[in-house]
Design brief:
This protein has eleven helices and two strands, in the order ββααααααααααα. By secondary structure, it is mainly α. It folds into two domains: 88 residues, Arc Repressor Mutant, subunit A (Orthogonal Bundle), CATH 1.10.10; 126 residues, Tetracycline Repressor, domain 2 (Orthogonal Bundle). Helix 2 packs across helix 3 and helix 5 packs antiparallel against helix 6. The two termini are 29 Å apart. Keywords: DNA-binding. One of its GO terms (biological process) is negative regulation of DNA-templated transcription. GO terms for molecular function: DNA binding.
């Protein structure tokens, strides 16, 4: 089955920023917002990355309703007019930030192929999702807030790209089931369980640190969490865990 690769450009908060976000900016010839003719592409890329990073922080702190594009522009160190040159509305910017967050997670899901070893593929997917929870807790919490609120700003993405990819990878898991490689489960709920087991360490980290008696969730805590999640999922599927 052919893999759809997520196109990458710019860098946002330490994560690759897709051209999907770049496409939300205004198009046309160079303008004052781009720093003059001849440097439009590079300046646009840098400005979009700065704005997305600042927007992620402000939306995480204040939510969609409480956030202002003026505050985002201030944090990004760009004039507010320039921000709206790239992102026409606050809604456009918010949607771009949310899609950037989840696209980085979907990259890991893309790597599950029909000819993959089920235990190795699922263990790797869990490990990458847990690493994302450790390195990108703030973006994960922002996504959680949006979904808890009904996900109204990302419904086209949820019902389009996400549903299609889960159906595609779920069909692979179903083939593993039909071939007797793993236990008979609902593939969609398998992915839901993996998302819940991994993202909870970002979204509810304060709960974990309090119970574990730690100031932060360190490498040891995430290693233990990865091992536990991997064993629970793989053994539940009748597979041997590599951890």
């Amino acid at each position: 089955m052919p893999r759809r690769k997520t196109e990458k450009a710019a860098v946002t908060g330490g994560r690759p920023a897709s051209r999907r976000a770049a496409k939300t900016v205004s198009k046309g010839s160079a303008s004052p917002a781009d720093g003059g003719f001849g440097s439009a592409g590079a300046i646009r890329q840098r400005n979009v990355a700065k704005i997305l990073k600042a927007a992620e922080a402000v939306f995480s702190k204040d939510g969609f309703s409480g956030a202002s594009t003026a505050e985002i522009a201030r944090r990004a160190d760009v004039p507010k007019a320039n921000l709206h040159y790239y992102f026409r509305t606050k809604q456009d910017l918010y949607s771009a930030v949310l899609v950037e967050i989840v696209e980085s997670w979907l990259d890991a899901l893309e790597d599950i192929e029909e000819d993959s070893d089920p235990a190795a593929a699922l263990a790797e997917y869990i490990a990458r999702k847990m690493k994302a929870a450790q390195s990108s807790a703030q973006p994960s919490r922002l996504w959680a807030i949006e979904i808890i609120g009904g996900g109204r700003h990302v419904q086209p993405f949820l019902k389009g790209r996400l549903r299609k990819l889960v159906e595609e990878k779920g069909a692979i898991v179903q083939k593993w089931i039909d071939q007797g490689k793993i236990s008979d489960i609902d593939p969609r709920h398998l992915f839901f369980m993996i998302w819940a087991m991994t993202q909870t360490y970002a979204d509810f980290g304060a709960q974990m640190t309090a119970v574990l008696g730690k100031r932060t969730l360190d490498d040891e805590a995430f290693a233990d969490a990865t091992q536990t999640a991997t064993r629970l999922i793989l053994r539940g599927l009748g597979l041997k865990s590599p951890l």
